[in-house]
Write a structure and sequence with these properties.
8-stranded parallel β-barrel; alpha/beta
Length: 318
């Protein structure tokens, strides 16, 4: 089956799925600053989705708008039946693809046998991939180079034999979390294996990517088809821009104001708590005079109206 992945420019750039970060609100802020080529949802538990109240309870995580296509739902779990059921529902919801999370290193998730624990259970991993494919959507996987120990060749060779639409490699093991530098030379090994086993499968590199320009350098050096940016977006919301430049305080604070507005808009559809917004303030309020003081005041607000008042007062004084 032809996949949208094959129609993307080379190299292409992806905003990484991040828990409690890459929801429909923040994705639109990034798109306004500088859009990636592909968007992923937050992580969505297939067991929760398939529970009696599941589609309602996961509605926020799966919310997206037509302007975000191609939109990929990232799912996780251990039950193939849930994957098959959820995959068919995702197809009806209009998603462009499904990505299976086989890389999250969180201990509470790993102890269930899901995500990066699947590196040690290839049999179940294969069943989950096959079940997700019943949706008719392109199925990709995001994973790591090992669990407790590195096993790049063994694990990636297995995945490449599953006829995936794309394969994202985060160049660390589960045990390493994000505590060591990403080893992109291991991703280069996966590219070589791809050339031998599944030349049709795009390889996406992930780990310590700062921005598009850095990603292009990694593409040239390691031969990947695409690059995924995760934590880099916290240091530069304009990370996907094609021509890098310095951005003004006004531009950064305009993104924050947009974020507040989108939060209010989405809250009309589904109530959203305000406090989780505070984790984003450091993205926009940085690298300009008075940023530290402003950020501290914003952290003590309790609503978007309060935050706007603080911003107005700051701009009036500076």
């Amino acid at each position: 089956m032809k996949s949208f992945w094959s129609d993307l420019p080379r190299p292409f750039f992806v905003l990484a799925p991040m828990e409690t970060v890459t929801d429909v609100v923040f994705r639109h802020v990034v798109a306004n600053a500088a859009p990636p080529d592909v968007y992923f949802t937050e992580f969505v538990n297939a067991a929760s989705f398939c529970s009696p109240q599941g589609q309602h309870s996961t509605q926020g995580r799966l919310a997206f708008s037509p302007d975000e296509q191609p939109m990929v739902a990232q799912i996780w779990g251990t039950n193939p039946e849930n994957f098959a059921q959820m995959g068919k529902a995702l197809a009806k919801m209009g998603f462009a693809g499904i990505d299976i999370n086989m890389g999250c290193p969180a201990k509470d998730v790993v102890k269930t046998g899901a995500c990066s624990a699947l590196i040690e259970n290839p049999s179940l991993a294969g069943e989950l991939i096959a079940a997700a494919k019943e949706s008719g959507l392109p199925v990709s996987v995001k994973t790591r180079i090992g669990f407790k120990v590195q096993k790049t060749e063994e694990w990636s060779s297995f995945l490449l034999k599953q006829d995936l639409a794309a394969l994202t490699i985060h160049a660390r093991t589960q045990k390493e979390m994000s505590k060591v530098p990403a080893r992109w030379e291991e991703i280069a090994k996966v590219v070589q294996l791809r050339n031998e086993i599944a030349p049709q499968t795009p390889i996406i590199g992930n780990g310590d990517v700062c921005d598009r320009q850095h990603g292009e350098e990694l593409v040239a050096q390691y031969g990947v088809d695409g690059v995924m940016i995760g934590r880099g977006i916290f240091h530069n919301p304009f990370a996907f821009e094609t021509t890098p430049r310095q951005h003004t305080r006004e531009e950064l604070l305009a993104l924050l104001d947009l974020h507040l507005g989108l939060h209010d808009k989405e809250s009309q559809e589904m109530p959203r708590r305000y406090d989780p917004l505070k984790r984003f303030f450091k993205i926009y309020v940085r690298d300009f005079p008075g940023a530290s003081e402003l950020r501290d005041k914003l952290m003590h607000t309790s609503s978007t109206a309060d935050a706007r008042l603080v911003l107005t007062e700051h701009l009036a004084r500076h």
